Amino acid sequence: MYLFPPTLSTLLLAAHFSRVDNDWLAIFCLALPFILFVKKFWVKRVYQILLILGGVIWIERTVVLVQMREEAGEPWSRLAIILSVVALLTVLSALSFETKKAKSRFIKTDNESSPIVFSFALTVLLLSFVHWKVAHPTMLLAERFLPGTGWVEILLLAFYAAWITEKMLDIKKSSTIRKRIWTGFSFVFFSQFILGLSGLEKFLMTGELHLPIPAVILAGPLYRGEGLFMLILFVGTVLFIGSAWCSHLCYVGAWDNLLACSQKKPGTLPRWRHGVRIGILLFVLSAAIGLRYLGISGVVATTLAVLFGLLGVGIMVFFTRKKGTMVHCTVYCPTGLVADWLGKVSPFRIHIDNKCDDCGACTFACRYNALEADDIQKRKAGITCSLCGDCVQSCGKESIHYKFFGLKPQTARSVFIVLIVTLHAVFLGLARL
Ligand code: SF4
Ligand code: SF4
Ligand code: SF4
After folding, report:
1. Distance between CA atoms of residues 249 and 428, nearest Å
2. Which of 179, 350, 394 is the pocket-test mutation for ligand 3 (most atoms within 8 Å of CB)?
3. Shortest-distance atom of ligand 1 to CA 312
4. Pocket of ligand 1, beta carbon within 6 A
5. Helix (H) or strand (E) run with residue 46 in it
6. CA angle at residue 85 from 83 to 88, to 5 degrees?
7. What is the pLDDT of residue 189?
8. How far apart are CA 327 and CA 263, in angstroms?
9. What is the mean pLDDT, run by run of 10 residues, along the chain of 433 residues?
10. How far apart are CA 81 and CA 60, in angstroms?
11. What is the pLDDT at residue 143?
12. Which ligand is nearest to the CA of 376?
């Protein structure tokens, strides 16, 4: 019985959306009550948030209809009262979840519900902002193909973010889940790329095709003198969340990771790799500037970029797969090096505390070669650390953990997971190329 008010409120919202010809949102609202079969605390909180949003929608509708009636010289007070009562009841129905029976259904078993709810809310906020700000052409993929489905896409992605956050918070599962969602992200990205190539330009952000080679994020703007979007997105993300771009958000790194994981344990790399990496970065940047000032055509520049990308694929196949360490990402890719450097601006770190007995077990969890003996002795991960978090579960002493200002390690990890999962869900829902 206590679930009746929220269910009724949702069905009334479905009727409203159907009336204003947004059938997709109407279907979403009709399906929403089924989530109440999931007896999790975060489901209750998310449903409460949606009911409050529902109240806001009724208020907005009231204002619009009152204005219309006023302009038409028609009476509006009865309509205003009825719709205001509906708005109020929609919001109040969220309180049904605070009854004794509801509390015993959606039990708060631990303190991990807040990060899940935050992921949901942040995903809704960010995608709503994009949907509101970039209307023509919209960046939401669903809206591009089926007008009116943008809000449904936002809500479904928010539920996805909540679900992934819940899984990632489980320290034993987080490494596996990270690899799966990263691979899935890359799959979706390249599916869009192939569909864009085959002529479906709706899959492309601007309608123009860009090369999906990470080095082009840096070299492209230097050669073209324009097209800063990807660079700004990359720099902004890395400053915010550190080099986690290279463990969660890059469409190519996921392949390197998959191939590295084909070996049981990662191997070590020579020390001179850092020098090689810096050399490749300087080479790529100066080549892009040189090609521009020599007036080399776009066709030639694109061919060179494709060759650079193919050489990278070769490195993954021949070196990463053999070594079990992400050779492409830690030695070859110049964008990864910039991510490592710029990422130091972000306060997120992997820290080793004094309980560490230098056993070296965490070294074998790190595919980025960032936990060599001297890194462990210095009690911090090396420069190539991508904040992937795989090492955290490998330490029996719980000595290695995320650090974020003065927060407790568990809280720092939760904050990190909320932010990175939200970005993952947001990036997943947008046209990118
Ligand atoms: S190092 Fe390069 S390819 Fe690897 S994840 Fe980072 S940006 Fe992507
Ligand atoms: S696994 Fe833990 S105790 Fe062992 S070296 Fe790594 S941080 Fe130290
Ligand atoms: S040090 Fe830990 S968090 Fe950093 S890359 Fe290695 S396994 Fe991932």
Report:
1. 9
2. 350
3. 3
4. 214, 246, 250, 252-253, 256, 329, 333, 335-336, 339
5. helix 41-71
6. 110
7. 87
8. 13
9. 92 95 93 93 94 96 95 94 96 94 82 88 93 76 82 94 95 95 93 79 62 91 87 94 96 96 94 95 97 94 95 97 97 97 96 94 96 94 96 94 95 97 92 56
10. 14
11. 82
12. 2
Q: How far is the CA of 305 from the centre of ligand 3 (A)?
A: 29
Mutate to test the pocket of ligand 2, among 171, 351, 357, 401 (most ligand atoms within 8 A of CB): 357
Would you state the pLDDT for residue 431? 58
Decide if 189 contacts 251 (C-beta within 8 A): yes
pLDDT of residue 107: 82
Pairing of the two strands 400-403 and 349-352? antiparallel
Q: Which helix (H) or strand (E) holds 352?
A: strand 349-352
Q: Is any atom of ligand 2 closer than 6 Å to the C-beta of 373?
A: no
- Comparing CA positions, the residue from 218, 270, 226, 280 lying closest to residue 245 is 218
Note the pLDDT of residue 136. 67
Nearest CA to ligand 2 atom 4: 359
Q: Taking the CA atoms of 134, 139, 145 and 146 in sequence, report the sign of the dihedral they define.
A: negative
Nearest to 251 by CA among 428, 383, 390, 369: 428
Instruction: Measure the CA angle with vertex 207, ends 204 and 210; round to 5°.
Output: 65
pTM metric for this prediction:
0.92
Q: What confidence score (pLDDT) does residue 430 get?
A: 78
| Type of residue numbered 53 | L
Which ligand sits nearest to residue 336's alpha carbon?
Answer: 1
**Closest atom of ligand 1 relative to the 330 alpha carbon:** 1
Which pLDDT value is given to residue 426?
A: 93
Distance CA 415, CA 116 (A): 10
Q: How remote is the C-alpha of 102 from its chain's centroid? A: 32
Q: Which atom of ligand 1 is nearest to the CA of 326?
A: 4
Is 381's C-beta closer than 6 angstroms to any atom of ligand 2?
no
